[in-house]
Every structure is written in C-alpha cells, then in structure tokens.
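hi! just following up on the protien thing from before. the input was this:
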Amino acid sequence: MQLIYGGQPFIFEKILKLATGEEKKFWRCNQWWNRKCRSRVYTINDIVMPLNRYHTHEEIVRRKKRTRRIPPSANAQP
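and the predicted 3d structure came back as:
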C-alpha cells in the first residue's frame, strides 16, 4: 500500500486505534531503508497530516550538486 504526499511516495507502516474508534495510519517515506529518510505522515479518515516533513535524501542530493568534481588529470603534477 502506498500514499503520495507532496510528490513523495510513502509506504504504510502501522495502524493505531484511537479512543474515538477511528484508525490512525502511519506512513513512512519509501526511502526510509535506502537513504534513512525520517519523513513520516499519518492519516485519519483519509486526511493527511505530516509528522516530519524533512526528507534527508533531498538534502543529500542538494549537497552532491554543490560539490565540484575535479578530474584526476587536473591534480597531476608535471
């Protein structure tokens, strides 16, 4: 089961029964295992609420774009 929120896919994690009888479903980012992303949301009656909006894999991508790669031949001494 998958949920798309903010353009990111989330995977179903668990259900918690509330005192009101409603079900609170927890979802985690699909990059949780690969990138250790901690972004999570929950749903109650199909209303999505974020728990943690920060996606760690987005920051990693941004950092990689900022770094400059120097080819090995540029470091060689004559």
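The two ends are 59 Å apart (CA to CA).
The chain is about 25% helix and 40% strand.
cheers
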